[in-house]
Amino acid sequence: MFRGFNLLRWSQDLGTDMTRTMTTQLLFLLAWGGAVWAARPKTELLNVCMDATHHKEKPSPEDKLHEQCSPWKKNACCSVNTSQEAHKDVSYLYRFNWDHCGPMEPTCKRHFIQDTCLYECSPNLGPWIQQVDQSWRKERILNVPLCREDCESWWEDCRTSYTCKSNWHKGWNWTSGFNQCPVKAACRPFNFYFPTPAALCNEIWSHSYEVSNYSRGSGRCIQMWFNPEQGNPNEEVARFYAEAMNGAVLCGAWPLLLGLTLMLLLLLG
To answer: Cβ of 249: how many Cβ atoms within 10 Å?
Structure first.
């Protein structure tokens, strides 16, 4: 009887020891995994293309990008065909009609062409790419810090053009195959729907952009316009924000690692 009791006691102790050992190993594994994850480089945020309708899988040179898209020819997420379509009215890209309230002023339209080129071609938007569940794309950009001067000139050049909506991402009438103003939506000058530069840049594409307080050349905001002969300034901007995000992840991981360490000490004690 005592031999059976001792055998049972031995089995229980063995089970407890095995459980403790397995728990300790699991916690060590979690701690190691957390440290590796927190310290991983943010290379996936740099030199990447969105998973969207017309983007290439990876950026690469495109020597013949069309006109306003040509600044990205050394390294682009768009094809030559996409760059050509970006300059057309009601192109096959999105069937979007810039002239939904009458002809848009050419000085205004060039900003929308440049906006399209930046969106389709830039490999430097990684820090602001977010996953979405939409039929036409799996990723979007959110709150890209657009340089203050680029936003202001966009707004100034479009003040005399007309539109009928403040959010161009949704709410259109698409029955004709391209966007038309919704019923009872009045066409008015841009500054009616966008009273400030920030209203235009922040709201027109559902906060794809967020106007920055930083200026062009600061290395802290994305430039819609740049001289490719002087290099692409947005590479430095993307690197800065990717490194900042990496630092934030490290700081956020320390409470987890500290908690795991305390649990280990309790178990081993």
So the answer is: 14
